[in-house]
């Protein structure tokens, strides 16, 4: 019994060593960095600005873990800007005053502006409301 108690004391003293925890932390950081270098598929929200109105579009993307993490941490920095003059829309079947954007067109537009990720799909349908213009 005395040997077991002595073993526990020695083990506790070794584990309380600050060098051990520093190396343990370093190994966890290095493991995380190597895991982020792999290719992943994830669902992220990409902000799309049409004129001055922001919409959040849910996309399934494929890319390195670094790029996906960057888009999840700072989504506004990686937004997509579209002019309302370039959008082909159809009237919405669910509500009046709303318009549907083709998911295929939106996927191509997002892919052309966000080149570090492969946009695999866009949640459909994306409904927008055009602001009232003075010439209407």
Automatic annotation (TrEMBL):
<keyword id="KW-0812">Transmembrane</keyword>
<protein>
    <recommendedName>
        <fullName>NusG domain-containing protein</fullName>
    </recommendedName>
</protein>
<feature type="transmembrane region" description="Helical">
    <location>
        <begin position="15"/>
        <end position="33"/>
    </location>
</feature>
<keyword id="KW-1133">Transmembrane helix</keyword>
<keyword id="KW-0472">Membrane</keyword>
């Amino acid at each position: 019994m005395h040997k077991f108690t002595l073993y526990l004391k020695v083990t506790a003293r070794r584990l309380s060593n600050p060098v051990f925890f520093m190396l343990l932390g370093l190994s966890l950081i290095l493991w995380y960095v190597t895991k982020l270098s792999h290719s992943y598929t994830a669902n992220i929200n990409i902000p799309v600005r049409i004129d001055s109105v922001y919409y959040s579009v849910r996309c399934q993307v494929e890319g390195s873990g670094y790029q996906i993490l960057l888009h999840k941490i700072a989504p506004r920095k990686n937004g997509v800007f579209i002019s309302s003059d370039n959008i082909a829309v159809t009237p919405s079947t669910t509500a009046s005053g709303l318009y549907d954007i083709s998911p295929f067109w939106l996927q191509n537009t997002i892919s052309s502006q966000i080149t570090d990720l492969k946009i695999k799909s866009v949640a459909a349908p994306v409904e927008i409301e055009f602001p009232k213009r003075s010439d209407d």
